[in-house]
Fold:
Amino acid sequence: MNVQAWTFVLVGLSFALYIGVAIWSRAGSTKEFYVAGGRVHPVLNGMATAADWMSAASFISMAGLIAFMGRDGSVYLLGWTGGYVLLALLLAPYLRKFGKFTVPDFVGDRYYSQTARFVAVLCAIFVSFTYVAGQMRGVGIVFSRFLEIDIVPGVLIGMGIVFFYAVLGGMRGITYTQVAQYCVLIFAYLVPAIFISLLMTGNVIPQIGFGSTLVDGSGTYLLDKLDGLSTDLGFAAYTDGQRGVMDVFAITAALMVGTAGLPHVIVRFYTVPRMRDARTSAGWALVFIALLYTSAPAVAAFARTNLLTTIVDRPYSEVPGWFKNWEQTGLIEFHDKNGDGVIQYVGPASDLENELTIDRDIMVLANPEIANLPGWVIGLVAAGGLAAALSTAAGLLLVISTAVARDLLKKGFMPEISEKRELLTARITAGVAVVIAGYFGIDPPGFVAQVVAFAFGLAAASFFPAIILGIFTKWMNRDGAVSGMITGIVFTACYIIFFKFVRPDLNSSEYWLFGISPEGIGAIGMILNFIVAITVSRFTPPPPASIRALVDRIRVPGEG
Amino acid sequence: MNPDRYWKINLRYLSILLGIWFLVSFGASVLFVELLDQVRVYGFKLGFWFAQQGAIYVFVGIIFVYVILMNRLDRQSNTEGA
Structure:
């Protein structure tokens, strides 16, 4: 069987599995639709959380990003895992005990304010849409490259699948399909990683393999070889950092806190039975995430070494087949500037002589081909990329539909709405959101990639301080929380908009505040939020006694 | 055990564990990474290893230690219903 046949079979089988699971686990009530009835086993919820969290960006882009950033790539590794410590220790157990269905629910009730609820709803919807557009784009890329289908029908198939299980199954359907999707995606990520680790270092475990010596008999450590190759070509050494310490610190902090504040992650912890299950479940989620996240830097180092040794300074006429395949997608480009027919790939210092442009996204997708792995492994990677994109998209669509049906209508404009109509509204909203997300996937506005920093920055600067102060203090009041959230959002949004859209020409470290890039500014927004919230609360009336009782109640386990 | 005491013990656990969390992430992997890079372990520079591997393992450990501590505290205080 050739690669394309394998891909069709494996992708088809995985889709059939998701649909089967979705039919088996349909939602009947709003509680099942929003939080799967609150009866999901903690380990399964951990697995679903891992699939929910690991998006097309984690699966397809992250190892590629690290391959090009070297040690600085650790901002993603640390940021996107360290946030789970905050989630497990500071947020998940208490939000579970609080026991409603959404983040805006908590913010609105704890701060006895429809304004606070409304601000939280807008943030949740904005963050989720930003994110979901990227997922649909990932679906499009996988379909167009591996199945040689146009992006449009590719995205339409993806939309159809998500529509089917998110709209029918709600949280219950999503949870169990995400468990299946986790299994597909982790298998698809680890198989090629193990293969390549074996080929290059003779070590089965990639996490150890990338610190081992190469199998070429030279006795050189892989990372030393990679450092040498990089500096020879005029790049920085792979294991050295390029970005300023302050910037790395801020980006890591913004990604960690943003992760802990993302509504589609938080809502997963409402689905387990008890407070203690929320803690355990966050632990399992991180175990399942760490499996991929500790393999990613190994994959990055392997891919970078392979790339530098197989095509650099080779005649273009002798490049391997995968090079030409990916050239057709435009993700890899070769311009023979000096006309010698040889591929020159050199570092930023001598940019004019560089003849090769490589999109970071192909590092994972092309890796099995670069390493000459069998056809079924390549097909598996396609199925894994789709699993990662679809599971995250579904989780986000649910947040959007819940935000509209529950937070805006039931708790806002139409409190007398019946459960049946609320459920119908949630389903219709999910359907509309799928269509909008699909549109972004087919025809992505140029700003999609640039607004991802927004999602984390806004989650960090808005939700996180409001939730933390709501749990860990009894004195934080409505006025403090609302003014803090608004300050954090406005500051973060203005900084990002200024450097990304108004004056992109100034977007370099000499103009940044404290040397912090727009990607990391959410960390400062968060600090401002805390300062403003605490200051304002000192000069405004304290929260009523019922709120202090609410805080007492969520801090301890047990009923009541 | 009264709720205030339960909460105080919880806060003590949290401050110790979050201290470790800060040390391995922002400490070993960001602020002191160059210093730790002087040490080599196997094929890794130590700072690089913490930044791309070690910190993640410690994160997992922190959560499970907290799970065990809190489950024990819940049993002692016997406030866990249902």
DSSP finds 23 helices and two strands in chain A. The mean pLDDT of chain A is 84. Chain A touches chain B through 51 residues (CB under 8 Å).
